[in-house]
């Protein structure tokens, strides 16, 4: 593994190593990508060990049961694999595929302020999740200047999400504030 200076580049977390798998140094991987095996599209990962991003080469990766497992260069036994438990996996953001004009990565939406079409601030995007069947949902948490202290779950669909402005850090929605 080689040391990488994260401050020198923009990185995106794609998942984490959860634990060891077997005795030959394989690790279990939890992927945030969709589909989850897309994490293996990146032959080199940045792993965060003791606050330092280090580059590690993926020798092999494959589905295992309902999850994923990987063999990493330099990780050859169970103890070395266990030492990586709960370590984040990232790649340089520049390595991510370019999206169409109206598409966004979830990490880009987290933290954006969400406004109703009438200008009321509903809150800030805390997280997004897939509710099944390809339906994405924004979890919107209240802020000190939002209209109330409620948490909202708003579907991320074109009929409701009217505009995403990454430069302004906001999303405009047509969503009844009483929901």
TrEMBL record:
Record's subcellular location: Cytoplasm
Boundaries of every RimM N-terminal domain copy: 14-94
A GO molecular-function annotation: ribosome binding
Pfam entry (one): PRC_RimM
Top-level taxon: Bacteria
SUPFAM superfamilies referenced in this protein's UniProt entry, alphabetically: PRC-barrel domain (SSF50346), Translation proteins (SSF50447)
Keyword Methyltransferase: no
Keywords noted in UniProt: Chaperone, Cytoplasm, Ribosome biogenesis, rRNA processing
Main localisation: cytoplasm
Domain annotation Ribosome maturation factor RimM PRC barrel: ranges: 106-177
Protein purpose: An accessory protein needed during the final step in the assembly of 30S ribosomal subunit, possibly for assembly of the head region. Essential for efficient processing of 16S rRNA. May be needed both before and after RbfA during the maturation of 16S rRNA. It has affinity for free ribosomal 30S subunits but not for 70S ribosomes.
Assembly mode: Binds ribosomal protein uS19.
Domain commentary: The PRC barrel domain binds ribosomal protein uS19.
PANTHER family, sorted: RIBOSOME MATURATION FACTOR RIMM (PTHR33692)
HAMAP family per record: Ribosome_mat_RimM (MF_00014)
Official protein name in the record: Ribosome maturation factor RimM
Species name: Bacterioplanes sanyensis
Gene: rimM
């Amino acid at each position: 593994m080689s040391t990488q200076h994260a401050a020198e580049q923009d990185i995106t977390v794609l998942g984490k190593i959860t634990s060891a798998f077997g005795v030959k140094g394989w690790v279990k991987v939890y992927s945030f990508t969709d589909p989850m095996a897309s994490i293996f599209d990146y032959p080199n990962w940045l792993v965060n060990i003791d606050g330092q991003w280090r580059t590690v080469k993926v020798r092999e990766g494959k589905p295992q049961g309902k999850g994923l497992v990987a063999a990493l260069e330099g990780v050859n036994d169970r103890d070395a694999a266990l030492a990586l438990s709960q370590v984040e996996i990232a790649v340089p953001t520049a390595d991510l595929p370019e999206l169409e004009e109206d598409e966004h990565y979830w990490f880009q939406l987290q933290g954006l302020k969400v406004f109703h079409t009438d200008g009321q601030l509903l809150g800030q995007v805390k997280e997004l999740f897939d509710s099944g069947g390809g339906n994405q949902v924004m979890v919107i948490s209240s802020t000190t200047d939002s209209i109330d202290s409620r948490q909202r779950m708003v579907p991320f669909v074109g009929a409701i999400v009217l505009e995403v402005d990454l430069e302004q850090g906001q999303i405009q929605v047509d969503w009844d504030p009483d929901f």
